Amino acid sequence: MLVIEDSRIRKATWNDIRECVYIITQLIPIGRVVSYKAIAKTLGISPRSVAIALSKNEKPIVIPCHRVVHASGKIGGYTPHGQEFKKRLLSIEGVDVKDHRVPKEYFMDNELVELLL
DNA sequence: ATTTGCTCAGCTC
DNA sequence: GAGCTGAGCAAAT
After folding, report:
1. Cβ of residue A52 near strand B, that is under 7 Å?
2. Fewer Cβ atoms within 10 Å of its own Cβ: the N or the C terminal residue of chain A?
3. Do residues A3 and A10 make contact, with C-beta atoms less than 8 angstroms apart?
4. In this complex, which residue's CA is closest to the C1' atom of nucleotide B10?
5. How far is the CA of A51 from the C1' of C8 (A)?
6. A62 vs A23, A25, A68, A93, CA distance in Å?
7. Cα(A16)–Cα(A11) distance, rounded to whole angstroms?
8. Which residues on adjacent β-strands are paired with residue A3?
9. Distance between the alpha carbon (CA) of A8 and the C1' atom of C10, Å
10. Distance in angstroms: CA A103, C1' B7
């Protein structure tokens, strides 16, 4: 991932990555979901890094990290309060989590990539 | 459904 | 620097 600062291109720092991940996460509307992979693609970094960024999240509720799940539909993690809490948050927002899986119709990976690329 | 190998940024020593 | 740890992924089994 590269960023532009003072008209120069430089490698993104950890802070840059976190900032971008948080901003994108906040773009996800209520009742929808995206995968780590989709965010990684828009930023040009690895999915693993996105997960790390979210895990180090300092504002667990302001940053809706519960709307980010595995590409396969599996729930993923939610360190502050555990998977169960994450599931509960999602169902409150209208996402029907079936058997530790979120159905593909809730995903907006394509829209996100199309929007930001 | 489960295992396996790959990945890459942070943390520890 | 070297080695370990993940809120992951994709392919093979």
Report:
1. yes
2. C
3. yes
4. A52
5. 7
6. 11, 10, 14, 15
7. 9
8. A10
9. 36
10. 26
List the catalytic residue out of A65, A95, A102, A108. Answer: A65
Pick out residues 75-114 of chain A having their CB under 7 A from any atom of nucleic acid strand B. Answer: none
Asked if A54 CB < 7 A from strand C, the reply is: yes
For helices A36-43 and A47-55, the axis angle rounded to 10 degrees is: 110
Give the model confidence (pLDDT) of A71-116 as tens digits.
Answer: 999 999 998 888 889 999 999 999 999 888 999 999 999 999 999 9
Catalytic status, residue A20? no
Encode pLDDT of A4-60 as tens digits. Answer: 999 998 989 999 999 999 999 999 999 999 999 999 999 999 999 999 999 998 888
What are A11's strand-pairing partners?
A2
pTM: 0.93
